[in-house]
Amino acid sequence: MKQYRPQFALCGCVLVLYLAFLTKTYYWDGVLFSLDIESVHRQRMPFAGLFHPNHLLYNALGYWIYAAIAFLWPGIRAITVLQALNVVLSAGAACLIFTLARRLTGARGVPLFCGLLFAAGATWWKFSIDADSYIVSVLLLLLSALFLLKPNRRIVAAGLFHAAAMLFHELAIFSYVPVLAYVFVERSNAWRKRLAIAFAYCAGTGCIVAMAYGLAYQAADHSTYPNLFSWVTSYSKDKGFTSSASDIVGHYLTSYIKLFAGGKLSLIRQFFSLLVCAALALCVALLIRGIWLLKRPGGFSESKVDRHGLVFLWTWFIAYALFLGLWDPGSAFHKLFLWPAIVLVTGIYTRKRVAAAIALAGALAAWNFGAFIYPHSQVAADPVLVLARKIDRELPKDAVVYYRTLSPDDWYIEYFAPGREWKPLPLNTDNRSGPVCLETTALSDFHGALDARQQWQLVNSQHHIRVACLAR
């Protein structure tokens, strides 16, 4: 009879639940990735355009998987493929968290708690059912940790997975800190040997990453990025370092809360249903159960904890926490890189009350589903998507849309109202049989006549979107 492996049961449950409620409020990065992938597939953009320095290989991987699936399933959208890919990878990551927790503590119950908390975290769950590059990079870091923390350590395999993680997202570079800390605290080797291992690890992984970036840079825009360093260190204008005390103290600490719990009462009211009601009722029941169990300690002795592994986890957390405290401190999604460390450290320190911890993790999962994940799986939760679908129904396919600056909102409309041609100004209306339209930035200086029947807009505190066609 085959041995029952609970981590695979956890992985299966995560996979089914995630797939059943894919998000409909997409993060703008994923929309752009999907737009680029489909543009390359239709030969409207060169393949080299998929290489981005912040996440070098993610779009290329997404393209090959999309191309293979589109061959068998014509008409499928790239964003759906990327979402499904993230779901599979995230379920695998939950399985790895379970395995690492068992290896670090040897405690029954702690692996289940860690796997459940990891999968139920609001930001991790949301990005696992979206289309973005964080999940694959974190999964590769977990694989690296798995090989490093083996009793018979496999440093080469750990290094290869770490290098791969850096090629899927640059922030994986900070995982050098826990790896080197782990190498140096291990007393079974002499200092000279530890130094040799550390040097070989850094040199080997660094060479792999440097070669990959060097090759990709050959196809980059050298006028914008005159050298490799400027390309590698480029980042979005809405992100960067801060010296603001309110950002560092207020927004930074709030972002950690968002890692655990999400949702708003307004979302509950808007999308209230029997399913949401059942999830919130389960949340209350498990919360009461967890609080009651806190009075009944039970767990495993301190000697069960892998001390070197604990050093690895704490340095993992500290390295990212220090950097992300200064760079884009308010973003919760960048802190997905330290989410595994938070979960595993929490599991280690709550192991004496693991039954209560499991109940509380279940309550968190139920809350996040009812107040956050389920509402965001509905199209109505994203007004820009609603507008894009309305434009897709009402604007003829032969329309051309002019813009001065292509914004993230425009990416949404271009992707979810496909088939129209988008062009930068200046305006050219010669020999056009279909509608000629302008989006927000192109309309700002336009004073001509517009067709009152072909205008769409979304103006609120978060968006100012207008699309209007010229009068014929």
H/E element string?
A: HHHHHHHHHHHHHHHHHHEHEEHEE
Query: Helix proportion of residues, in percent?
Result: 55-70%
CA-CA gap between termini: 75 Å
Instruction: Provide the domain count.
Output: 2
Largest sheet: 5 strands, mixed
Strand content: 5-15%
Outline type:
globular
Strand order of the largest sheet: 2-1-3-5-4
Strand tally, please? 5
Gyration radius, in Å? 24 Å
Number of helical stretches of at least 4 residues:
20
Structural classification: alpha/beta
Rounded mean pLDDT is: 90
Uncertain stretches:
299-303
Description:
The chain has 472 residues and is of the alpha/beta class. The chain has 2 domains: 6-380, no CATH class; 382-470, no CATH class. 60% of the residues lie in helices and 6% in strands. The protein is built from 20 helices and 5 strands. Strands 2-1-3-5-4 form a 5-stranded mixed beta sheet. A hairpin with a 4-residue loop joins strand 4 and strand 5 (464-470). Helix 2 packs across helix 19. The chain is globular. The protein starts with 5 loop residues before the first helix and ends with a strand. The model is unreliable at 299-303 (pLDDT under 50).
